[in-house]
């Protein structure tokens, strides 16, 4: 850090920076190029088969490599939330580079290492790794070299991990008595009806925030058995292979996802569009999709009204709660993974570790 401050003092005009703090100065943004929108489906041939997509041609009649590359980038685009995070990270990095007077696309490992050390003053390890991924993506798109495994980068990242710790922050899972208390504390009116369905569908299907607010009316089917939820794409399914998750009807109406969803649909109506929509003053439902942060507010608000600490829960608490409750009930890990759609056993075990901590514990036979 002393080296970083020395470089900062040399490059900043005017007074020297305050000790222990690095200020950012605005500079010309170097945005990550946005991928173009995907082309519409090709028209069908008279035989009913899809027509072959046209190959873009250059002026000399040969395939246009630039246009083909743009189409490939459109299909390889990352999730919108990831792109937003990358753009924010890149904007912060370009401001920092402008203050130091260095090229943000230079790919200098020493400069990258200094920036990661700067980030360690205010970010957690996972966010620092996201910053590094954003820089790597920006350099890749610009066709500039970037070695994220270079010793000048790897050593700094290892040092930050040793200082900050690499254990991810885990939110409290919401299930059992906590979930019932949150449901009982929901307000009367349209917001309470919507949030009951939101909490129970999110819990029963073990949905991420983005998956929950990304549902459309056509993605759910209610039957005598319960609710079928179709996920068109997700964090671990960026290609859109899709998945179907089932939620059984609850033993009581208070905790039944199907009953809660039926009540919400009576208010929402049957118009196509987002499943969970905004509710404005007067209890009127507007055909506006909720944001992922709306899920966070709903969970934290319900927790606060139930007398729980809202700082310990988040939108992810519903997904974690399903996995934890299932493990406590003795469900096999593979069955839990089928519901949560985890592909990694190691990641899935992180959700059920607390429940398994006391099961078949060897000290039962020793103490």
Automatic annotation (TrEMBL):
Gene Ontology molecular function, alphabetical: DNA binding
GO-annotated biological processes: DNA integration; DNA recombination
UniProtKB keywords: DNA recombination, DNA-binding
Transmembrane intervals: none
Gene3D superfamilies referenced in this protein's UniProt entry, alphabetically: 1.10.150.130, Intergrase catalytic core (1.10.443.10)
Region (Disordered): 1-20
Species whose genome carries this gene: Azospirillum brasilense
Protein name, as recorded: Integrase
Entries under PANTHER family matching the protein: DNA ADENINE METHYLTRANSFERASE (PTHR34605:SF4), PHAGE_INTEGRASE DOMAIN-CONTAINING PROTEIN (PTHR34605)
Domain Tyr recombinase residue range list: 169-364
